[in-house]
Design brief:
This protein is mainly α. The protein is about 70% helix and about 0% strand.
């Protein structure tokens, strides 16, 4: 995870500036992200079960206290990536384990592209005109690096698991 070569200084600055505008309301902005995720791929809804409870609708899921906790955790992971832009490799093991956990609950690697699109959608909606093509490109590169590390969680599982 070579973050220094991945993102230019200008891209790191764009990510930090844009995240500063979004990070003050993590649950509110996370709801935008996950609402979009369920709009784009409703088949992901069954992956979110708490205490064996299946949600009947995205709205029911999005209002559940357990899911709001999940949103907070997702936003904290994004915050950690933004905080470590100079040295993303320090998050490598954590992200690999996070990928492993996602695989264990049935998330498919392909779903990460939908999550990435939903992240960019949330940033665009929340930043408005400040979401420039350069900001989009910087976030896309950061998200790709995070997903690459998480995918290693799939690759490190023993055969048959």
């Amino acid at each position: 995870m070579e973050s220094g070569m991945l993102l230019s200084g200008r891209q790191r600055a764009l990510i930090r500036e844009s995240w500063q505008r979004v990070s003050g309301s993590p649950v509110q902005h996370g709801l935008v992200l996950f609402s979009r995720l369920f709009d784009v791929d409703p088949d992901l809804l069954p992956l979110f079960q708490y205490n064996c409870k299946q949600f009947a609708s995205p709205q029911e899921c999005l209002s559940a206290p357990e899911f709001l906790d999940h949103i907070r955790k997702v936003m904290l992971v994004i915050d950690a990536a933004v905080s470590h832009l100079e040295n993303l490799s320090c998050l490598e093991e954590y992200l690999c384990n996070l990928g492993r956990k996602h695989q264990a609950v049935g998330v498919k690697v392909e779903s990460f592209s939908t999550v990435g699109e939903s992240l960019l959608y949330m940033l665009e909606k929340c930043l408005g005109t400040a979401f420039s093509p350069d900001v989009r490109e910087a976030w896309s590169k950061l998200y790709s690096a995070v997903v690459k590390a998480m995918r290693r969680g799939w690759e490190t599982l023993p055969e048959g698991d």
